[in-house]
Each structure stands twice: as structure tokens, then as C-alpha cells.
Amino acid sequence: MYSMWLDAREQALWRGYLTMTGRLQAVMNRQLQQDCGLSLADYDVLVALDESPGCRMSELGERLGWEQSRVSHQLRRMGERGLIDRRNADDDRRSVIVGLSEQGRAALAAAAPAHVELVRAVVFDGMSAAQLRAVGRWVTEVLDRLG
């Protein structure tokens, strides 16, 4: 039977993880804003659409792990800035198909090099191959348990 509380080691790891992810998201967001005027949410959408062109808005939400209202608001803002294209699906007029506009492709191409450099420097530099495999297994297992 599980204790109602995390033990000291679990608590330290959990708090460290939360602090790390919060700081990492803040640093990535700041870098993207300063370098190219994109938010981290903008970048996440651009990457997802680049990897899955012409997907339904509902699929995009599942891919990002976002609620439908967040997806709708984010896409509206990005559409107003010309970063994405939206159209009704041919097979279901209630479904919306989303893709990168030319401006969105250019924004992603401009943002990606510095973003990758930041992630590599902060997260992966100094990590051994064994550590990389262990973290990869851990992330996969947690994601599997989340369904």
C-alpha cells in the first residue's frame, strides 16, 4: 500500500522536476519571444503542424495534450498573424483542417536553429549516453502510464 505522502527522495525529485520544467519553459519562451516574436505555444503548434501537415484541429489538440478551447484560441491568434491556414474538412464541414502558411513555415525555419541550440545546451550537453537512455525510458514509461 502506498503512503499518503511522497518519501523524501521522491519529494526532492518531484519538486526538482517541477522547478526544472517551469524554468525551462520560461527560458524557451523568453528566447523565442526575443529572437523571433513567437511564444513557446506558437512554436509548439508550428512544430506539430510541420510534423503532421493538414491535420484536424482535434488531432492537433490531442498531439499537443491541450484542451480544445486552448487549441481554438491559439489557432485564432496564430491565424490573425498569418502563421497558419484553416479550412473546413471536405468530409465533415464541422471539422477544421489546419496547416502551416508560408509565413508559418518561414517563422519555424527562423526559430528552430536557436531553439535547438538552447535545448541542446541546457538539457543534453553533458548527458552521457547511459543517462540519455535512462531518461528516455523513464519518460516513455510515464507517458505510457498516462495513456
From TrEMBL:
GO molecular-function term, one example from the UniProt record: DNA-binding transcription factor activity
HTH marR-type domain boundaries: 10-144
Any one Gene Ontology BP term: response to stress
SMART domains: HTH_MARR
Pfam families: MarR_2
Superkingdom, natural source: Bacteria
Gene3D superfamilies: Winged helix-like DNA-binding domain superfamily/Winged helix DNA-binding domain
UniProt protein name: MarR family transcriptional regulator
Source organism: Mycobacterium adipatum
